[in-house]
Amino acid sequence: MTKHEHVLSNGYTFLAVTAGQYGTWARATDPMTAIRNAAEENGYGNDGKILVMCVYGKNGSVGCGGMGGIYWEEGAEPTPIGLFTVTPKSITPTKKGDANKTHENCEEWIEKVLSDIRESLAA
What we know:
By secondary structure, this protein is of the alpha+beta class. It has one domain (about 10-120). It has helices at about 30-40, 105-120; strands at about 10-20, 25-30, 50-60, 60-65, 70, 80-85, 90-95.
């Protein structure tokens, strides 16, 4: 892949990050490729699945922290795409119980990211 193959003509990209303390990330011009590449780089774990977060944002202004999670520069807030449960054969929105009983589902994750964005804008 060349340096900018993951960047759309508008300067934006899809960033996918595996959930957990130590994970992997990938960027692509579509969310499914970014999600699949991050999952494959990470591996699927003992239960054959991994959770992957995905956002759409300005290339170079959204990223993955050293201990996981997604960060963004002020004024370049991303659009949350979702939290997905990924296996070698499927990508589906995360449901309650996919990771554990208390882990957020896809919709809750989107709401959490939007809340974080609102907080950052209010600061």
